Amino acid sequence: QKEVEQNSGPLSVPEGAIASLNCTYSDRGSQSFFWYRQYSGKSPELIMFIYSNGDKEDGRFTAQLNKASQYVSLLIRDSQPSDSATYLCAVFSGSARQLTFGSGTQLTVLP
Amino acid sequence: DAEITQSPRHKITETGRQVTLACHQTWNHNNMFWYRQDLGHGLRLIHYSYGVQDTNKGEVSDGYSVSRSNTEDLPLTLESAASSQTSVYFCASSRSEGNTQYFGPGTRLTVL
To answer: In chain A, what is the straight-line distance between the N-terminal and C-terminal CA atoms, in Å?
Structure first.
C-alpha cells in the first residue's frame, strides 16, 4: 500500500466552482503536510502547509487536516482556469525523516 | 534573490556513461534532496542530505550517488546510465527537517 494516496483524477470542475482534492496517509506519526501545485513541464510549487488539526485558509485555498482519520484535503474556492494543474499532496514523517509524495491529482477548470 | 538552480536542463546520453546533474542553492539551506518524477509514480526520493558531509539513501537510490562538500551544492551522479533512468530529475532544498521544500526547475534526462 502506497504511503500517501491521492485520487489520480482527472478532476474537472466548472469555473467558479469549488474543487476538492483529497489525500490519505498511512503513517500515524506524520507531522507536516503540504500541498504543491505543478503545471505541466514545470516544477512543484508550494501552495500551503498545515501542521495542526483543523482548517487553514489562505485566499481561495483551504487546507483541512484530520489526523485521527489520517486525511488531508485542499479546497479551492472560485476555481479559475489558471488553477488547472496537478496537485501533489506531501507528508513528512518524523520517524522516516522524509517527505513522501502522492501521485498527484490532475485538476482541470473548465471556462 | 535566493534560488535553486539545476544544470543541465536537458541531457541526452548513452547507456553505460557516467552522468552528473548539478544542483546549486543560494538559500543557505541545510537540507537538499534529489527526486525523480515519472508518469504514474509521482515524485520519488533518490538521495538526501541534512548537512555537509551527510548523505542518505532514499526510496530509489540504486544506480545513483551524491556527495555534499558544501552547503550550496548537491550533485547527483549516475554511475552507469541505464534506460530505466530516463526521467525528470528535481532537486529541492529546505531550511530544516519537516519544513517546506523548494524545488529547482528540473533536468530532463534521456538515456538511449
So the answer is: 37
